[in-house]
Amino acid sequence: MKIARAEAILVSIPFQPIGIPPWSWGDKAENCFDTLLVRIETDTGIVGWGEAFSRNKDRALAETIRTKILPLIVGRDATAIARIKHDLEFNLHNFGRVSGVMNGISAVDIALWDILGKSTGRPLVDLIGGAFADQLPVYASLLRYADEKNLGDAIEQSIARGYRYIKLHEVDLDLIRFAVRLGEGRARFMLDTNCPWSVSETIRNARALADIDLMWLEEPVWPPENYDGLAQARAAGPFPIAAGENQGSLFDIAAMISKGAIDIAQPDVAKTGGVTELLRIRALCEATGVDFVPHCALFGPGQVATFHLNASTQSKPVVERLYCDFEEDLYGHRADPVDGFIRVPMGPGLGLDPDLAIVDKYRVN
Ligand SMILES: [Mg+2]
């Protein structure tokens, strides 16, 4: 079964914000999220779908995938997943081991696992060891509101929808305390600050928040590769430290763990090397006593692959879902949480294919 065709398709779908999220990723803030799809078709007619992490209608990344990555896989045996991934990484390592190229390689890996599942008639979760759970709790990963009214509305709405875990993306300590107090007893909270602070600021701010209950503190220290600094913050406490979404491979996560920087590893299947790499990272986590809780700010095949990965993990990690309602949904809402849980799709491969009419409607490149 050979790879006959491969293409990158960039889709961006508007969502209904609560308030105006000030997240802009360095660009003009827009209330829409990308799904950068990789579609691989075999000579037997099987089509697999993968996803590369993307924001802000990243046409440049789509073009990088088209021109640098996909030409290298056409004609290859579609079942040689680890070998294709290795060859792509080896041949392209000069172009960066974190970000763009790795996001694209991750997408290829996910699509090849989808093809393997479809060709064998098995869901991905079965191919990677079988399920510990057929449904998983989801956490509402709130956008950053920086405003008590909008943040409060988002918390009340997510609890009313059945979420029992909520992650904040705030950095203002009063606002964080307000949010946890508002929801405590009804939901458990995590805090993701997205790398804003120095080590000393992190230690000071974490101590100032010691009176609230947080399941974890995520990426408090700038820059994300400052593992010594993160280890210092972790040692100072009081919260478990989570990070990993800005690491590119097993070896980055291994370095974090050996520095004592994290309690919880958060590799992203659409950034950190796909299903193949996350399985390696999961084994490392198991052997080193670090929790494996994948990052997932994805809405396409990467999100669905994360369902399968989490379901096949003995600790049944909670699934991340960015909290926003899309104008239209790539999967006809079949991947949406219901009452705070998702069901793992048990069809062959990922078990869900994107709706091509929605892909066409929101395609930007
Ligand atoms: Mg994060």
Automatic annotation (TrEMBL):
The UniProt record lists the keyword Isomerase: yes
SUPFAM superfamilies: Enolase C-terminal domain-like (SSF51604), Enolase N-terminal domain-like (SSF54826)
Membrane-spanning residues: none
Enzyme Commission number, as recorded: 5.5.1.27
Domain Mandelate racemase/muconate lactonizing enzyme C-terminal per the UniProt entry, residue ranges: 148-240
Keywords noted in UniProt: Isomerase, Lyase
Example GO molecular function: isomerase activity
Name of the protein in question: D-galactarolactone cycloisomerase
Species for this entry: Cupriavidus pampae
